[in-house]
Amino acid sequence: MDILYVLIPLSVFLVLCILAGLWWAIERGQFEGVDQEGERILRDD
Q: For residue range 10-45, what is the model confidence (pLDDT) as tens digits?
């Protein structure tokens, strides 16, 4: 039972880190033009 006092805050911290990373990626435009990158492979430059 004592391990829950460690695991619950640790899991909350991990979720907050994941959400912060996702927010950072969205703000920097990492998910803009996703279709263009897939088509770039098929184009012959």
A: 999 999 999 999 999 999 988 887 788 778 888 876
Report DSSP state, residue 31.
Answer: T
How far apart CA 2 and CA 4 sit, in angstroms, is: 5
Dihedral sign, Cα of residue 45, residue 33, residue 16, residue 14? negative
Which residues lie below 8 Å from residue 25, measured CB to CB, with a gap of 6+?
A: 31
CB-CB neighbours of 39 under 10 Å: 9
Q: 0.70 exceeded by the pTM?
A: no
What is the chain's Cα-based Rg?
19
